Amino acid sequence: MRLLPGRILARVTALPAIALSAWLLAAFPLLVIGHFTPLTSLILGLPAVVAACALVPRLIPDPPDGERVPWWPVIAVLVIAVAFAAVQIAFHAEALVIRRDPASYAMYTAWIAENGYLPIPQQRELIAGDDPALSYQSLAYYQRDDVIWPQFMAGAPLVLSVGYWLGGLDGMLVTTPVLGALGVLTFAGLTARLVGARWAPLAALILAVCLPQQWVSRFTYSEPLAQILLLGGLLLAFDALARNRSITDRWGGPQTLAAVAGLVFGLGVLVRIDAIRDLLPVVGFVGLLLVARRGQGLPLVGGLAVGVIYGLVAGYGFSYPYLDYLSDSLNPLLLISSVVVFATVVLTAALWRYGLPHTERVRWLPNTMAALALLTMVGFAIRPLLWPDYGHGSDFTDQWVAAVQQIEGLPVEGSRTYYDMSLYWVGWYVGLGTVLFAALGVALVLRRLTQRRDLPWLLPAMLLVWTVTTTLLRPAITPDHPWASRRLIVLVIPAFILFAVWFLAWLTHYCERSVSYTRGGSMVRSLPAVVAACAAVSLLGPAVATSAAGIMGYRQDVGTVAETERLCASLPPDASVIVVDSAMAGNYMPLLRNVCGAPTAALADPSPEVVQRVVSAVHERGRDAVLAAPEWDHLDGLTDGSVEPERHFHVVAEMDPSTLMEPPTGHWTFNGSVWTAVLPASE
């Protein structure tokens, strides 16, 4: 078999989604049965990944222009992905103290990688039994009955655990930079299929240099993995539909690829529960495939169902308190999903006999679709002037937004959500040129689809337009940056880049055709290249400028890994830790419990009498009591000077800022300390 550049690019860019889906497919059942260990994962997970990577890429068809694809796009894409990984590894964060989500995922990973099961036992029998003064709940960890449930979905921790097994905390923390690079690679593959291989390096480079892609890849966020799965699902679905198969044909490669694509899509729910919203267009698209008698329809929906079931089991089986917390938004989403499935079944049955409507025969419809797309973008642009958004529904969020407003010198309106600024957020990170080109690109794509042209764009357009619209309408996130950029990076920013690059390719081809019909010298003939170069700079330049002036020049929470190891080493083997400061308990309890392995509880009322009672109960169990607090004097007063408190954790490091009306620049300072006082059982 010849090593054609087009074939290599098609298969290499599909591998991340294939490999990660195979791992999740094998690893999650191990967590369900409580045996997610390095050995069982090696026995079951590694063969699944190897088999999937060996067999599935063979089913991927060669691109139509595969014979004409040069080597330079393949090499450029790989260089961009490798360079991205190297830079992000060099600047990776060490977020282990819970302040926001990255450390929550890190602590989740540390627990299942070390123990292999959920839920987390409170181990109250090793502290003070059922003493009512003790609490076991902390930020992102819910106390229910006699166990503790982590907040988030299991997908990202299952993948990050591989890094933990290979390299401990450092190995875990550098796994996400690798995932971010694989997301860039996957996006390049999708661009190569929809726009052309020669345009894939430009799209990959724009995504790689934009601030949100770099930022989420430096932390243990779930977004890089979700990005790989959702973009990878689009990529594999494109390949599955490249060959026409009737619903009555025998099972073959296209049907297998369709099933894999559906599974990859569905496993996105195992990573992020809000992926249910993003996948609703896939359900409608399956209905269109069935009406068109395409043989890939049933395998696609079958794979999708398996992946979604994995996600729902993970959510309601292992993160139910979190889903209960999200019920105000999740329950309507589940209701809407049920309506979409029912409507798809009804419409598929109704259209089964007559086939798909011939939209190309309605002369006014293509231009109307294009105009609606442009008007929607205009609506998002003028939204801050006409419909400023208010109402977080959370007093804590109101207080945080008000605090950031005071720092920035803005009018203090804590209920201001800034959701009306969502299109401007995109513009901050990829530039006005990309937003403008994307608007024109999506208008042209929808126009052509309505004319039944460029049909391979149908599923990507359905999914991306739906996700961009719903996300920009309601990002549903605390609006400070770079935090809020998380909502944009999985699909929204890739969608803008993809449509913008497609429009640039269309514009270049248009110039080439125009030049071919005119007589002119070398300057005229070079017009397409000049247009392409200038437009590419206009897309790439703003993204580079925002990142260079932003927060990419430092590492967050540097020194936390070393200090965590020092803290864990300072604890006696039979230590039971009692955190006597409620604010500190929310941040540090999971670190003490999940990483150090010490039974840990917090005291809401750290009065001397209560502390003495709990310490006595710990000693009665033959264990050493360890009091923990953020300041020396907290402990000195509780021990009456009988034990000298020591500080075994102290980090002063740079951390991300928070901004509301401009891209983030500079940094704030994180100052974290843990003082401990060891009260041995023998005393």
From TrEMBL:
The chain crosses the membrane at residues 12-32, 39-60, 72-91, 147-166, 172-192, 224-242, 254-273, 300-318, 330-352, 364-386, 426-446, 458-477, 489-508, 529-554. Coiled coil: none annotated. It comes from the Bacteria. Keywords: Membrane, Transmembrane, Transmembrane helix. This is Glycosyltransferase RgtA/B/C/D-like domain-containing protein.
